[in-house]
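Appendix B, example 12.
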Amino acid sequence: QVQLVESGGGLVQVGESMRLSCAASGLIFHAYAVGWFRQAPGKERELVAAIGSKSGATYYPDSVKGQFTVSRDNERRTFYLEMNRLKPEDMGIYYCAIGPGPYFYAKGYKYWGQGTQVTVSS
């Protein structure tokens, strides 16, 4: 049974940083693409960071490029989202996800974490 357990999230001030983690079990972790999605109130869920299974290639939409960094540790079966210079528009529920990919394709994800709220206070 595949399980993704997220940690991190919470309340930060504008301009601060936050790191989210996602620990995976029940699958051959290194064989899958991993990604982070964000769902802001009233908006659709969007892919905000992803990393491929083999090459380590990454994807970021323009809205977070240079601000977010995704990484993975295949030995620990865990991946991370480092978010810097947080803004109110970064608020939302963040979901980690794993899937066959392609890593840059939002519909390429099959397994999901429980979601964690990120709130940015001004």
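The chain has a mean pLDDT of 96. DSSP finds no helices and eleven strands in the chain.
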